[in-house]
Fold:
Amino acid sequence: MLTEEHVCDEFHASKTYPARSIDVKRPGCTFENNQTGKKGRSMTLADVLGQLDAQGAGKARVTMGPLRALGKKLKTDHAFALALWDTGRTDAMLLATMLMAPDRVTAADATAMLASVTDLQLLDELTYKVVAEAPCADELCRKWVDAKQELTGRAGWNLLVAKLLRKRLDTGECDGILKTIESCCKTAPVKKAESMMRCLVEIGVRFPEHRQRAIDIGTRWGLIDDRPVPKGCTPFYAPDWIAAILKRQKN
Structure:
């Protein structure tokens, strides 16, 4: 199920990962006060993990609101983000995506991080917020979009969606993307297909000249997920999703 513009939170169930060894002395375990340029109150990795433990106590999944508030407090700190990522904890890794400096992420870095991801929400945060803004984004998009591995394929299509959202694709490129979607949408693994469908929807919304074709492809494609739809969400059915976004924009 999807909100009018993104994946509904109901769809993402968080997972808990066993922590790997943590080097609390790793560089970057203090943060800078970006307003003064001086060192702020020292906050160690252990401090942050303790705060995450407190936020997650008794909850079955990660709550993004408090996590984003903590990320805003810590601000960008790439070395600290890598230390958080190395814990292997979903909540810490999600926080890491909020602190990373995309311009410091190489193709090798992104590939290694992707290989350690099994949680969908983490995958989406990593690709939309970090990899999509990294210098290697176009290179990895071309490499990942045709991947047979389900989550790698999803990551590649996420990067295409990110290019659409940032107005980095033109109508000619969209024509080729629509041909690809039409030719393989029904055989793609579900998690990859979900991102492909979002790409189809974004093209239909943002390019009026392709709208009817996107709707026709979506109609033939059908419904990906037949689970009951929570209030405020639309199903994985492209024509309804396109209509919902256009209605929202009109209102």
Observations:
- The two ends are 22 Å apart (CA to CA).
- Residues 9-250 form one domain.
